[in-house]
Amino acid sequence: MENYQGVAMTDGINRKNHIMPLSTIIKAYHNSWNTVFPMNLGHDRTKPIGYTMLTGVYMEPGKAYVTNESSIMESKEEHEEMIKMIKASDDKIFCEERKEELDTLVRRLGDVLSDKSRVAPVGQAVAIKDKDIVYRL
């Protein structure tokens, strides 16, 4: 496994011309300091290559940085462990943290769902993946 250290974000102007205030920097770190984030090749969820974790907030006069450590898997065993970690992370993010919304969606879809339906990890939305669900609706 290769490990790299870097800066995840700063309170300076970013590439989208936005500025993150110090309060946002600290809140971002506070809310996810113990969370592992999967890293994907080109942001493609089907191509995981490693993970990253926030490691601290570095401050100097007039500037704040959220630091991170990234790990890239090299062996088959490391890759298999990473896949387990991603599945656990997905379950937490898309099922546990959105349980009420997911239960509402399942209840509304009712008998339309097949026994092969599953939660679809799609960013900020709550979604169900099920072959031919649109036709059954």
Describe this structure in words.
The chain is of the alpha+beta class and 137 residues long. It has two domains: 88 residues, no CATH class; 40 residues, no CATH class. Helices cover 34% and strands 31% of the residues. It is built from four helices and six strands; from the N terminus they run βαβββααββα. A four-stranded antiparallel β-sheet has the order 1-4-3-2. The protein has a two-stranded antiparallel ribbon with strand order 5-6. A hairpin with a 7-residue loop joins strand 2 and strand 3. It is globular. The model has no long low-confidence stretch (mean pLDDT 87).
Order of SSEs: EHEEEHHEEH
Regions with little confidence, pLDDT below 50 for 5+ residues: none
Give a short account of the largest sheet: 4 strands, antiparallel
Question: Based on DSSP secondary structure assignment, what is the total number of beta strands?
Answer: 6
Helix-residue proportion: 25-40%
What's the number of helices? 4
